[in-house]
Amino acid sequence: MVVAFNAEGRGTGLPGNLRSEGLEDCNGFIHQDDLKAIIEFASGMPNVDVSNIGVQTSSYGITMGAGALGRYPDLPVAYLIDGEGPHDNRVTTHYDVGTEHDLCGHWSLVTDPSPENEAWWTEREAIRYIGDYPGIYLRMQADIDHAQGPGYFRHAIEMLNAGTRPQFGGTGAASWTRMNGDNSANPINAVYPLGDPAQHPAWLPGRLSDYPDLAAVYIREVAALVSSGDTDGDAFSDIDELYVTTDRFDACPDNPADDAWPPDLDLTRSVDILDVLLYKPVVGGPYDRRFDLNTDAAVDILDVLLYKSELGKSCTNP
User: Fold this and answer.
1) Residue 63 to residue 34: CA distance in whole angstroms
2) Which among 88, 119, 226, 266 counts the fewest CB atoms within 10 Å?
3) Which tens digit of pLDDT belongs to each residue from 150-209?
4) Between vectors from CA 248 to CA 161 and to CA 227, what angle results, nearest 5°?
5) What band does 39 get if pLDDT is binned at 50, 70 and 90?
6) Domain ranges in the chain?
């Protein structure tokens, strides 16, 4: 089921675009509370799987989405998909790219640092609230941002870093984060340095508008991830396999290059002491998430101890 709504004060009154009661709030707390009410209403409907509700936003909609989900973290929302949303007053007003305009009569805090303007923006900066959202957060970002233009990624990187948990280098509470979906091959729960483009994630080539169906594709990907648990039945969840970079759709290697089963580090279709010995140069060395079987952002004895229940197992392909 898909729910779309006009927040208070919006709509033309034409068929299919009903005008909502109330006054325009420019995605502040009133509009965020509207979204909260919509989520609560939808979650009570008999044909809705309350464990797999998602919110998808486009552009400035992230202000409403992150605000509602961060201020009300107990809402039953499993995932948030953010399409190139601005995250602070400078990006929202296009100050950074030199084409500043006002939003609902308010300019950036650089242009107008008054206490009144700061109070207004306090309700309307997604970066303030994304860190309190505990679900899955996926950011959609192309090379050429729909509003900021080519090569501008501060909003994307700062939002992802703010949503990602501290054990992975971020400052947030999200259970899972990623820049773009499966077609990007970016790792999950990764943070990025803004000042080093060589370490940036893979951006979508061109513009988001070049991919008219991509939001629906990503919704299906994340919804399937939430509902499936363990697609390949190898006792390692899809989310954990995404983290350690193994194939979540295959329980056993098909060939010597198919990294499919998390404890089978040497890809021999069996788990033995040779797999355990591969930890020797990794424990205490540079972090390698492929060895982090308990996905706690550290490779240590706790990962090795997991082999107690895995040693002697083998797998076969049909």
Assistant:
1) 13
2) 119
3) 999 999 999 999 999 998 999 999 989 999 999 999 999 999 999 999 999 999 999 999
4) 75
5) very high
6) 29-228, 254-318
Contacts of 80 (CB under 8 A, 6+ apart): 54, 55, 56, 57, 65, 66, 69, 133, 135, 136, 137, 138
Q: Which two tokens stand for residue 46?
A: 């008999």
From the list 137, 138, 224, 226, the residue with the least C-alpha distance to 173 is 137
| Biggest distance spanned by C-alpha atoms of the chain | 69
CB 206 within 8 A of CB 142: yes
Write down the pTM of the prediction: 0.82
The CATH architecture assigned to 254-318 reads Orthogonal Bundle (1.10)
- Distance CA(299)–CA(318), nearest Å, equals 33
Q: Are 146 and 59 in contact (CB under 8 A)?
A: yes
Strand order, beta sheet including 54-58? 54-58, 79-83, 136-140, 176-179
β-bridge mates for residue 150, sequence order: 144
Helices (H) and strands (E) in the chain, counts: 9, 6
CATH class of the region 29-228: alpha beta
